[in-house]
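Quick one: examine the sequence and fold tokens given here and explain what the tokens say about the fold. Here goes:
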Amino acid sequence: MAINLKSLAQSLGISETTVSRALNGYPEVSARTRERVLEAAKLAGYRPNPVARSLASGRTNVVGIIHPLPNDLADPMFMQIVGGMSQALEQRQMDLIIAPVSQKNELSSYQHMVQERRVDGLIVSRTRLYDERVAYLATKGLPFVAHGRTRINEPHAWFDYDNEAGMRIAVEHLLEHGHQRIGLISAPLDMNFARQRFDSFKLSLQAAGIQADPATLIDGANDRRSGYLAMQQLLALPLVPTAVVVDNHMSGVGAIRALLDANVEIGKDMSIIVWGRMEDSLAGYHVTTIEQPDPDKAGIKMVEMLLSQLNGTPPQELQELWQPVLLAGETVNRLVR
């Protein structure tokens, strides 16, 4: 039979307060004491009362993600990140909630979440160039981590991959294979990651003495259908690009489908790089990608950053930039003139 907090404290010969703080991860408890308490709790089958635990700590033990509709729940990479978050929270007996909302009510949902204190912290995903959600939360004292950077300057915690470096790697890879007329299919450019990748694309070409043709730069593509239509638009140009970079894997699937439907021999008639790994079964090819490594570990990292804020770490000290890598596939070949 499981024992209660009082019995556990008596068995260890320490106060209930110390036991409670050890179980809840408070930093003032020594590592040795915490390890001793956790081991004893495990052996004794101790299970904390979640209501009492919340009342005692002043916390909900819940982390939230607010998602505007349509959202990323069909995105396998996003779900890997969420899986990492869930894993990290489960280990701490905490919960993750995802709250879908309409786009017009997104900011008011943040305001309601803060005013009601329904969560201990928030993950803000898909950051925008000038993100009103980040600007609002940065002044309200509720811990949060922005999944992506923004041009909002208020001190806040963020986690991101190096979008500029990843796009530079993609363009240089195509240049090394002889391509100079390179197209770009982008997500909406009010999304910060898309703008960073877009700007880096143009700067990388400029560094090689090449001006990007505006006709080959198609934005607003963040799903299969828009990726398909964007590639059709490129294929209809009088001078078709010899290579294309797609800045997100969701539209990458549609872009490759458009090439297949147009009987374009991928890697020979046109080379393509997609940001984010796709299942080969979806594309029909082993696609050359710019990979964001370890999405599950990224989710774990964001939870750790959020919990560090709850334990007193200033948010501006919690800013993490991970590096993407190129995974060569069969969709990029040397241009034959």
About this structure: The first strand starts at residue 62 and ends at 69. The chain is about 45% helix and 15% strand.
